[in-house]
Amino acid sequence: MLEFHTAGESHGPAIITLIRGLPANLEVDIPFINRELSRRQSGFGSGGRMKIEKDEVEILGGVRWGKTLGGPVVFEVKNRDYENWSTLMDPRGSAPSSYEEITIPRPGHADLGGMVKYRFSDLRNVIERASARETVGKCVAGAVAKVFLRHFGVKVGGFVESIGEISAQEEMSWEEKISRAESSPLHTYDPEREKEMIELIEKVGEEGDTLGGTFVVVAQGVVPGLGSYGEIQERLDSQLAFFLMGIPGIKGVEVGEGFRSATLRGSQFHDEIFYDSRRLPFPFYRQTFRSGGVEGGISVGDIMWVRCAMKPIPTLRRGLMSVDVREKKAVSARFERSDICAVPRAMVVGEAMLAWVLAAAYRKKFGGDSMEEIEAYFKDYLDYLESFHSLEDGEK
Ligand SMILES: Cc1cc2nc3c(=O)[nH]c(=O)nc-3n(C[C@H](O)[C@H](O)[C@H](O)COP(=O)(O)O)c2cc1C
Q: Could you identify the atom of ligand 1 that is nearest to the CA of residue 311?
């Protein structure tokens, strides 16, 4: 079973990612992990922090000479801002005499719930772990998953579809959308709409307000037969919903055209099945992927995609109404350096989580203790898929 855990606070010493269940002999591509971390930091609409920190990963255990050893692997990304917070976030010290607790919760953030739940009088204790800084750890896990998936020919990408009420509109292939998004400041693919989105973010920022939006993440080159209808934990759509909804700020996840499916006839929605003996490895294929590439909790093969809706950022310069929980007085919620719109960055985290779900599914299906074993089992499965070619395809 492939698992990851993260630890660490936003302004603490570091964000840690611990991954269990990786096979031995997987190369750990540090430059690639760092590139993914810098993608997470990019995107128009981000707050000041992205400018002061450049995330870089270090390995604390589980890897020797660039390859995994089969045990748990631990990564660390230092919080460079910690040097400015070393007293306030010191794991050993105590509160300085001048310290003032934070007692005004922001609507839309974890503040009030976290305070009540853990019996904290100081909201700082909630803010620090609930912060989306934790998504650094998710991106490290996702980057490792992407490296693992390369061995099976799977590529994961994504693009922003909408910011606030403005949606990208140009029609083009997945490949083109993903490749255009790579070089776009908003990680989107329609340059005309992008200008409008940027103007909207600037305008909303000036008003002291924030924005949400939607993004799509896509995997290409997926084999059919991953996941299972057998149990809720095994369904790929359950796993996708779990990991993508687990990204802070994500309030809607649909596998393929999930919500639109409710308005369509069966004949308009379901992806018809075709056979072509020239297609390798599997001759059965779909021309459409409205199902998101998952049926009965199982991958249909080729494409898998998910759309996510992100709510507007809860920390507004123009503070919303709140209550000081110590004074019991109505006040404006406090502002702390914050993004205006984080949809482009959340999209990168979404890619990480899609890659993670798929890596876990490949790991489960192909077993083994080392990359060599997994690749041998995978090759055996490809041979099996090719056996669906009919005898008349005898050239094979
Ligand atoms: C990449 C990313 C960046 C975010 N940046 C901020 C931010 O700067 N300020 C903020 O208040 N919320 C930010 N959020 C959203 C909050 O973390 C999130 O709304 C909060 O943790 C409450 O969780 P919930 O929205 O899932 O209920 C960000 C989310 C992501 C994925």
A: 25
